[in-house]
Hints:
The protein is mainly alpha-helical and about 200 residues long. Helix content is about 80%, strand content about 0%.
Amino acid sequence: MKKYIEPGIVFLTIIVLQLLSCAGTNYKRLSLEDPNALIAIEDSLLSIDKNNQSINEAIVIANNNVAKNYLDSNELSLAVKHFEKSISINEENKDSQYGLMVAEGRLLIKKGNKNGIWDAIEKLSRASSIYPKQGEPFYWIAVSYTKLGDTEFDLILESYEKSLSLELDENIKSEVEENYKKAKNRKNKLDSFWK
Length: 195
């Protein structure tokens, strides 16, 4: 009686064996160029040599890259999952810690629960302490304050201004600027109403 082996398992096994048989395999390059391919075989790599520092580093980078893509596409639960995987391998990795705080904060904002939004502000504040030059956490803090009640203009505008004074990815910079202008206009309308 012949045993049937799934083609996917055979394919992954072949890839793992090829990677392991190549002297000087550059896992880091694979983690940057095709992180999903490395993640597909990470369990096999870790089961063979879980103490190999270059493999662990590459898997962390791959998971972080995939998580960042999920963040960009607003698939926050999947981003959290990959950042958590990275942290399970290297709990000291600042990119993983920062990304996890931002992803969890954004997930809490998305859920909209008032207590959860306060927790989001706390997580985003912790993210800003990991990378103090990054403006993204302050943007999400401004969004959080807006969700709590869009009359706390001092906190909202201060958070937007802080965000804009720091480093921002181009993919969200225009969004931050637009939302800042909207908040400022709302404040001006409210101020003029009470005059």
